[in-house]
Amino acid sequence: MKQKIFSIMYAGAAIFMAVMIITFPQEVLKASQRGLDVWANVVFPSLLPFFIVAELLIAFGVVHFIGVLCEPIMRPLFNVPGVGGFVWTMGMASGYPAGAKFTARLRQEKELSRTEAERLVSFTNASNPLFIIGAVSIGFFHDHKLGILLAITHYVSNFIVGLCMRFYKHKERHSDHPSSFSFSKAIRALHQARIKEKRTIGKVLGDSVKHSIQTLLLIGGFIITFSVITEILREVQIAQIISSGIAVFLNLFQLPSDMALPLFSGLFEITIGANEISQADNSILIQAIVVSVILAFNGFSVQAQVASILAETDIRFAPYFFARLLHGMFAGILAWILYRPIYQGSLSKDTVISVWAEPSISNIQSIYVLFEQSGFIMTLAALFIYLILLVKPKH
């Protein structure tokens, strides 16, 4: 009986979507174009290099090298193997859902146990600096100082989530203990991993490109789909009804109720929500808190991407979702605590942080502008190469 109910629910949702697409063709088209624009101009060109390089690092044993070196740090802090250091750094640098992809990849390689993978994915699937500073802070708010506050809040709260999730199934002991730092042992691990790789360099490179683009095509589909879903929910007034309930929740924390609808949009798709929050008539502090929450929550669009990637393994989605709730709570609290010392105080023109941060922000802004101007061309070129790689084996 339960399965029949689910079948009816799934069929009903699909029929509802189909009817709404027919009913609101113009709105759906604009939402699809908005999602495609974000994916083709920013997401695809910014993530593709990281995905390809990560595949090469795994194939050539560099991940094993990093794993041995990071074991004395990652095991005591997060209760995961040293290879988690690779996933953590790559996840922060490239942004979501890279952490989930790399975790799933290492789980498939048997480098992580199921529990370790669930711990690792809970705190490695973060936003990247390009999106936080380039797209959100500079692109939407036109305020680079806000970018530093959001970035610090996002990564510090993510670190705290990692510390909390180390206690997830803590009674499940691992046979290995943290080893001492050993560069020679790391070199041996790299060499052994490379010897086990039987593919030629050309094959490894081709597979890296194909697997990376396949993942990015999946990500693009989710971005467009959730952009359309968000627009449909607005058109049929469901978003407004749910937002009224969110407004009651916001009032409990003395937050303005007019942030409910932007928050609702952000819970589905981060980019849309952040843009709407930047246009709301509220203080920077309120906007910073709400944006920090949706960045940490990841949005249902990113969560669906993660769920799809994890479905290829035995890694469960529930711990990741629980970690997103923790991340959102910690991020909102930290944004409130750090707003005065970081945004109002420490970022005046004559401080050390400003001198350090200005060049970095300028570089991130330049990269973001580059993606906006030529990202679509880069995406088309990569897809053309992908088609060549797909057709080539048939000859």
From TrEMBL:
This is Sporulation integral membrane protein YlbJ. The gene is ylbJ.
